[in-house]
Write a structure and sequence with these properties.
Residues 527-861 form the HECT domain. The protein is an alpha/beta fold.
Length: 861
Amino acid sequence: MSAGKIIHRYFHQLIHGCGNNQCSNIYCQSSSLFKYDKTILNDRNEVAAEAIRLSLEHVPLCVDENIIKEYEEKMEINKLTENNLQELINHCKKIDNWNLLNKSIEDIFSNRLNLLNSFLKEDFSNNISINKEFSSTASATPKSFFIHDPRITLDNDEITLDIDVMKRSIKLLNSYEDQISLTIHKSLNLLLNTLQYELKSKQYELETDANFFNLFIIIFELSYLSDPFFLFDITRLFYSILTNLSIDAQAKFVRILSKYTKNLNDYISHVQQYITLHTLRWCNHVQIESDNDELLSSEPGMKEGVSVLRLLFYANLLSSQRDSLEVIETERKNYEKMENELVKRRQRYNDDASDNDEQHENERKSPSSESTSEPSTPSATTTTTTTKRKSINEVDEIESPYENLLQIKLGLKPNEYRHGQHPFDIFVNEYANEKIDIRKEYLNFIQQPTSSIQFSFIFYPFFLSTINKIALLNIESKARMYLQRRSIFVHNIFSSIRLNPFFKIHVRRNHLIEDALISLEYQGIEHPDELKKQFFVEFEGEQGHDEGGLSKEFFQLITEQIFSPEYGMFMTNEETRCLWFNPSAAEDLDREYTLIGMLLGLAIYNSIILDIKFPPVLYRKLMGKIGTFEDLETSHPTIYRSLKSLLTFNEENEGMTIEDAFGLTFQVAIADAMGSRLLFDLKENGEIIPVTNVNREEFVRLYSDLLLNKSIEKQFDPFFHGFLLVTHDSSLRKLFRPDEIELLVAGSQVLDFNQLASAAAYDGGYTKDSPTIKNFWSILMTFTDEQKRKFLRFTTGSDRAPIGGLARLKLIISRNGPDADRLPTAHTCFNALLLPDYSSIEKLQEKLSIAIDNAAGFGLR
């Protein structure tokens, strides 16, 4: 036998063994007595040198040519296929020895070329051109292979991988976790470290390799990624490599996932497990070092996990139904029109402000100038201290935290998708969100340029819970209010014109809407910067400083009046009990609709929940969307069901035509607030155009558009304009989905008083075990839903629960003296209830009932 064949046998014996798990040869890898450190197997050159030495020393040799031949027949060395993997597993089960499978896995999963050549589609496997870069050694061993195919480019979503075959094969491998887990870990460690090194110098060549993306799809399919044994090294390295690819490559990966992966759920679960365990590690680290002030976003590996989750979020969107191009273009034009109106209004304001500045300067120079002007003058241009960033939305467009290069590359706007392949909530890691200190995240964010921030959760709104988004919006609003106060303080130091640092309105209870209109029109509409100040209300003839309670009451009272049927601006859908615009409202109500829109925006800006109920489509429209047929399901359920039956009607099965069955034309009637029927032609001469099998989809589209858009255009446009006057510069449209805006405005209608009790605090001598407190909660738990809402309005100013439930109200119950005949009182701005220590449960119930039934006006509180 030639020396070369003998060396080959020794090499195989060291690398793969003889396959006999009872082997006693210390020079055979199959032996439990194997004398070598198995790390030697990572360097094939070192193994080859050792094989040469063993051949010269004639040590025992237990591998013959038949074993090598059998191995090579069972395994095509350079790739895995579904068939050879199944045969290999069957062989290992037959001999009850898994060395051959482990060695094969090691050959494939530790070598980029071998892995990329596995599970290929038939039409690609034999039709590739290979560009070989040879090393400088005499043997000219290939150092790198780059496979090119004109059908595969970075700009398309084609791949050479047979997804179905790969999934079946990896599923088979995952079922033998006990036998191959360690080998997979070792092999991926070698593969990924080598790949990371190669990407430093050959990134473009690798990313344009026809098989390159196969590697990421295959590894993503491995269930081991969520195993704690893999999470902190292998998985993190894999995520790091993936998220450091070029934007073009990441975009292609997202498109591949959206096209070929029918179910992203397993991938999302892997990443969420990764994020949860990294959050746990951060918690343990913070607990050990009590003086540690590091944010969760600073935890090593967190950036990689959330960034990969964003790739999956984008794939989830791309794999679902986007709004039609016609709808998107209509929405763009509508919003552009509204933007232009805002620009014109602000231009008028700036012109007025310039004139005022000139006038004020002249007055300042005049000897007769007064130095104590009333603070009702609209704010003029003021000097502010320069900061790196004032708020999230004041950054340059290219620094926008909510629009990244990958999103732009993919042409994605999340609000153009009603839903994804999976619910959006699946991307929110609740455990991690509980640990995020959103205030510190925000401060860390605004104190440095965007380009210098390594990672912040603020860049990933899809990951933030609704609670954290609301907290972020509130913090941003307070930061703006602070900046307004600071700039006015500086202005007042150097100017004789005294400016008011707050947006304060003075109203009479009997003329609430009239007074609010005058104040908001003058200070708000004509001077929009006033709206960025903290909002205060004064009721004429009533004492009390507005710490939040009076503002809550003001919003509650004015919404009750302006939404009442007597006012004729809105009507209530009897089926849904939701408010909707009255299509026949008076022509001269633009000011009132603008006022309501402003109130809605001010409530959001000042963190006040309103007692109103609109259908979900209204909040979509506030985000710049238009209503479509799908929205009718929640806004006009009966009409939706009728139109649905029209769309699904089968003339052949029913034995009659749509004309005979429905008798519809393109003229329709809409009921107004008074019950009158208003006739509209969906098309010219609509009364003579029948609805048929051919034009029924057009009829449904036009009818839906009429109900939700065209018939209320005159009412909604000023309403939307008023809303934008307050919210235009905020992060609202970037942070929130329409369904979250609804919760932000109206809160939750689910009232769990057990949550309220569990989070309550006690003061003035009360504890949770005090007899009066026990009686108090006993009474509240027996209240009807209406009584519970009255109690909440009495103590907090709103009868809704905030996002996250009643536990977030933090009700404070203070002992207000011993037993007495006086009623309980409340400070709504502090969610504080002042409760005398009543002598009996009957007396407590009587006094509490009187208080909550007669709570209107500051005098009782």
